[in-house]
Automatic annotation (TrEMBL), chains A, B:
Keywords: DNA-binding, Transcription, Transcription regulation. The keyword Membrane does not apply. Signal peptide: none annotated. Residues 9-64 form the HTH lacI-type domain. Pfam families: LacI, Peripla_BP_1. PROSITE patterns: HTH_LACI_2 (PS50932). This is LacI family transcriptional regulator. SMART domains: HTH_LACI. It comes from the Bacteria. CDD domains: HTH_LacI. The keyword DNA-binding applies. One of its GO terms (molecular function) is DNA-binding transcription factor activity. Coiled coil: none annotated.
Length: 343, 343
DNA sequence: CTGAAAGCGCTTACAG
DNA sequence: CTGAAAGCGCTTACAG
């Protein structure tokens, strides 16, 4: 009966012998300000409740040019990092009265651009985007139009926007320093091809730590893989790092999935972790504490990041009622486990 | 310019000096069947493309009573199992021309019921639901109304519907047999409180395997935790199983998250896995092959499950063009790793 | 306080 | 082949 016996506004109006206007007003909590009698209001509300009235969102959205919906565009909903963001964003948005529309760009800038347009056409009221960072034009358009949006996890350095990101530079520096403090000197970095600012910052953090310890930068120790093909490339990368005995005594992996496949490969090669090669991971998987060895990781504040993004967005949608800082760089946390040995 | 310079149907019609009807027809690929000249069609299509015309989905949906959208209701988008389903469903649906609306029920039947209604109000054309299995009434309503939907991962045994699930009984039986073949005889089961059919089947599979080996069922070895509070309860549960020396020589965990927290607890107690206690997991986490020890797991065919669900649903939405089996029980796969020792 | 009316942007018989 | 018109279900000035 959910579909068939649908009640419409006009049905309520007819049955109760009031105008559609009155019904609409009351059901939108505008009864008092329009001085509709308490009696009439109660009558309408009771009837609506009893008959399970729910307004057709399409009609409502079309009429008001609004939808009480926000869009979330992420690279990939299957990735644990982004699915956690999705979960927190959904929860927070729901608490504030908004539904969220998710979509994955699969790191494809064209698809991301399409998604942005498609979401606008669905009349979302705002957008949270973990961008491929290759859609500056679209981002600028949104800004021009004063369309509310906030970038999450990844931002554009050459455009002033709302954003919530993590401090990639310091996270990466801290974890590299951790290896240095433990006496490691030949530190490899397995990362992605630059393009994402976050990845660039992780590289810079690594540099900076080495620099503080007066260690000359050896570019042979930095391997940049492609996003699409990292699973194959990592074998070569690790082969490269281990080409000569003692060429490397530790590896920083700059994403959780690089860590997973990297560790898998190290195990296949019977490399002892951490004795021969210590490893650390930027970002983690939920089982990293159970892995052999438990992996020292930089943990990102996913929940805070998500909540703050939603707060900034909805505050803007609702007309800047509160004074919230609209650019945020959050601290990560180093979780020390056993993949680097001990002091 | 995405928002402001929006082009509407009437703009195109006016500029090109044709009717709105013509524009709408052509843009919906009904130009030929309405015998609109190739010339006019080309003119319209070119103009639309050039000016980035995208129809307002709200208006279109309202007018047609359709939305080219399907809804996916899952317990929790943050859970890796469901986020994978979401990813595959999104991909498959997109390939077939549909957008998907996700929402998490958080295992709350009321919320699930609300979500169903809310999605209907957004005019989704069909629903894929991993249900809490406590909304039989809503499910029956959908059936009565002939509203297209398919249950995924969890189905109602007392209602005939479309569904795609995994063979929980045999998956569980196989993994229990695996332990038996390795000589384990005191096999604990850490599972959830019954309620979900899948969980019930896993229990029955466990029973059946024990039965085949003439092992008397000991109910002290089966511990049923609550979904909300399993993290705390698991400590007690494992304490219970290990209360007496040699009370248990192996444990079957019936979900991936129970395995994670269980193994964490076993490690905390310095129980040697698999020497003292072997463990197996129903369903897995992506790092289970890296865990210490790598965990023998029942792997669910998530991708197939998702794809088939979408196929069944869209086939029904589009009027049963193809003859597809509408109830499917898929095989799981036992991935033998090291958490049970070897023969 | 109320009701008739216009409008949101599209689709789709229907008459020509 | 084309165009005027009604309709999807709601919201919201506006006149009373």
């Amino acid at each position: 009966m959910l579909v068939m016996k649908k009640v419409f506004l006009k049905d309520i109006a007819k049955k109760l012998d009031v105008s559609k206007t009155a019904v609409s007003l009351v059901l939108n909590n505008k009864g008092d300000e329009n001085k509709i009698s308490q009696e009439t209001q109660k009558k309408i509300i009771d009837y609506a409740k009893k008959h399970n009235y729910v307004p057709n969102q399409l009609a409502r959205g079309l009429s008001r040019g609004k939808s009480e919906t926000i869009g979330l565009i992420i690279p990939n909903i299957s990735d644990t990092f982004y699915s956690k963001i999705a979960g927190y964003v959904e929860l927070k948005a729901k608490n504030l009265g908004y539904t969220v529309l998710f979509s994955s760009s699969n790191e494809d800038p064209k698809k991301e651009a399409e998604l942005i347009r498609s979401m606008l056409n669905r009349q979302v009221e705002g957008l949270i985007i973990a961008s491929t960072q290759q859609n500056l034009k679209e981002i600028e358009s949104l800004k021009e139009d004063k369309f509310p949006f906030v970038l999450i996890d990844r931002h554009y350095t050459d455009s002033e926007t709302n954003y919530v990101i993590v401090d990639n530079f310091n996270g990466s520096k801290t974890v590299t320093e951790h290896l240095l403090k433990l006496g490691r000197r030949k530190i490899g970095l397995i990362t992605l091809k630059p393009g994402l600012e976050a990845i660039k910052q992780r590289l810079l953090g690594y540099h900076s730590a080495l620099n503080d310890y007066n260690i000359e930068f050896n570019k042979n120790l930095v391997l940049e893989l492609s996003t699409e093909n990292y699973e194959d490339e990592i074998k070569m990368a690790i082969g490269e790092l281990l080409k000569f005995p003692n060429s490397v005594d530790s590896i920083v992996f700059s994403t959780h999935y690089l860590t997973s496949v990297g560790l898998r490969e190290l195990k296949r090669l019977n490399v002892k972790v951490p004795q021969e090669v210590a490893i650390v991971s930027f970002d983690e998987l939920s089982a990293f504490d159970l892995v052999d060895p438990p992996i020292t990781s930089v943990i990102q504040p996913v929940k805070d990041m998500s909540n703050i993004a939603v707060e900034i967005l909805i505050n803007e949608i609702e007309g800047m009622k509160e004074n919230i800082e609209n650019t945020r760089i959050l601290d990560s946390k180093l979780e020390i486990r056993k993949s680097c040995g001990t002091f």
